[in-house]
Amino acid sequence: MDIQAQTIPSKPRVEPWNKSKLIGQKPPLRPKHVWSIRTRLQMEGRLRDLAMFNLSIDSKLRGCDLEALRAEDVAPNRYAIDRATVRQKKTGRPVRFELTEQTRQAVDDYIQAADKKSREFLFSGRGNHDCCITTRQYAPLVSTWVAMIGLDPHFFGTHSLRRTKATLIYRRTCAPCSCY
User: Fold this and answer.
1) Average pLDDT for 41-62
2) Which structural domains are found in the chain, ordered by start?
């Protein structure tokens, strides 16, 4: 009895989902990047984007928490306050953050221009003022801001904005020992 070698049909190779993609943490923005983006948004008169960008840097909130902000959270009487407290969705813990003068001014200008009421979402969704902007709308905005100053949007994301202020504080406090 001849036993012939049976050929097993080979499966086509499936390409991994993360091939040629950046994996791991995305880096924070540097101070010169932050200033470049702010300047470009101001020059183009993009009040909502400027307010959103400044708030994302100052608050260090995740994208989902930033999007769900209501006008009363940061500007209870139509003017931005110095410090705000927001409860995070993921952890359920309140987080307190300080708004810089530049951010307060951007938020004030945006609220006045958009005529936001206190119970409305600060950053409304597309076409519907009763719902907030989604993460799928926020992420491309961040990519646009980053690309606008000549950086590769694949290297920076929404979490880059969250990490930026913490990194700046760390660099300032740890500069003499050159840990970073």
Assistant:
1) 95
2) 36-165 (1.10.443.10)
